[in-house]
Design goal:
The protein is built from 15 helices and twelve strands. With about 375 residues, it is α/β, with parallel strands linked by helices. A six-stranded mixed sheet has the order 11-8-2-5-6-12. A three-stranded mixed sheet has the order 1-9-10, with no helix packed on it. Helix 5 crosses helix 6 and helix 13 runs parallel beside helix 15.
Length: about 375
């Protein structure tokens, strides 16, 4: 049994991120979307669609009980009587813009907006998460770049990510060839040469110049040192063994709360190997439950499905296209988008820790266009 002291690094993270209301007693409900279980390279290709984010989250309210009951809402959705578990697919379909045309989504967003319940989620771009260790390895290997502040480091990571993402087939080929994220020491120079070859043309694009130029210089320094500590001695071709760390994170951060996850046998088996303790007190603060028996889990499925569509829309479109599309929405689409924005900000104001985003700067900029 592995022991996890939830207080390790927790206070530092709360202080660093300026989080408040983290010790409040909440009740969290979870579902997920785009759960590939494992992110790896197989036969030279990533096993998941790299333009979709993994999102884990759902509904949260303060306290361990409340008088809010979604039954009436579900009745108003006027779904087929044979449906015994409401899922996102019963509410809307198509891409994000088509989903915004759903009157059922409108009913749900209005209901959430009017209640003392909030949205929480972890939004993870697996590709971004999987490649930033290239820059982190280069930074930690250099006395000069160790002085980078987090904003500048994120700029460099963002530009590397954009360049590799735009050349995804070549990126997959190189990663597979060298066994990324576990590069043999005698292959580091060749690997870095190939990465530099992909990103080098972007140094001539004004918007990307600073970040790419910096990335090239620090990768060349690592090439000379033949050291990339975070992408050596790992499992070859496995960028993420599983998503369990993102289930564990809220259990650490919201230690005084109760967490209800939709049943996920694979994750449940992993979490059973751990014991969470607060000082010397063992915590019993999470449970996996059957979503058929809990309407808050079903509501979480709907909201995570909506967010999955949102972030796929953000990933697949340029800033210019997003601005054009948003400016030409119909009245119902505008109302639903405004309601989603209102709920997001309501949740953020209740507790910034409810919304965790592990995404590129590029995504965050585009998200602010959609949800200003």
């Amino acid at each position: 049994m592995n022991i996890i002291n939830v207080n390790e690094e927790r206070d530092l993270m709360i202080e660093f991120q300026g989080l408040e209301n983290m010790d409040v007693n909440y009740t969290f409900y979870y579902d997920e979307t785009n759960n590939g279980r494992k992110f790896h390279l197989a036969d030279g290709r990533f096993n998941i669609s790299i333009d979709q984010n993994f999102i884990l989250g759902g509904i949260v309210y303060e306290g361990q009980s409340n008088d809010i009951e979604p039954t009436e809402l579900f009745q108003r959705l006027d779904l087929q009587k044979t449906i015994n578990e409401v899922k996102f697919k019963h509410i809307a379909s198509g891409d994000f813009i088509n989903v915004l045309k759903s009157k059922k989504i409108n009913l749900i967003l209005k209901w959430i907006s009017s209640k003392k319940i909030y949205l929480h989620y972890t939004n993870l771009n697996p590709l971004y998460f999987g490649i930033v260790d290239i820059i982190d390895s280069a930074i930690v290997s250099s006395e000069t770049t160790k002085a980078f502040d987090i904003g500048y480091a994120n700029l460099v990571k963002n530009e590397l990510y954009i360049a590799l993402n735009k050349n995804i087939e070549k990126t997959e080929e190189i990663f597979y060839q060298y066994g990324y994220p576990s590069i043999d020491e005698d292959k580091i120079v060749e690997f870095l040469d190939d990465i530099i070859e992909i990103i080098e043309p972007y140094r001539y694009i004004q918007k990307s110049h600073l970040g790419i130029e910096t990335a090239i210089q620090i990768l060349k320094a690592s090439r000379r040192n033949k050291s990339m500590p975070f992408i050596q001695d790992e499992n070859k071709h496995v960028l993420m063994q599983d998503y369990s760390p993102f289930y564990m994170q809220p259990l650490r951060m919201f230690k005084n709360s109760m967490h209800y996850f939709d049943r996920e046998d694979h994750i449940e088996k992993i979490l059973k190997q751990y014991k969470f303790v607060d000082e010397k007190k063992q915590l019993d603060h999470y449970s996996f439950i059957d979503s058929k028996s809990n309407k808050f889990i079903q509501l979480s499925d709907i909201m995570m499905g909506l967010l999955g569509k949102l972030y796929a829309f953000i990933r697949r479109n340029s800033e210019e296209d997003i601005k054009y599309i948003i400016s030409n929405l119909g009245e119902l689409e505008k109302e639903n988008l405004n309601l989603l924005n209102e709920i997001t900000w309501k949740s953020h104001e209740k507790c910034k820790g409810f919304l965790l985003k592990i995404t590129s700067d590029d995504e965050r900029i585009k998200e602010q266009i959609v949800l200003p």
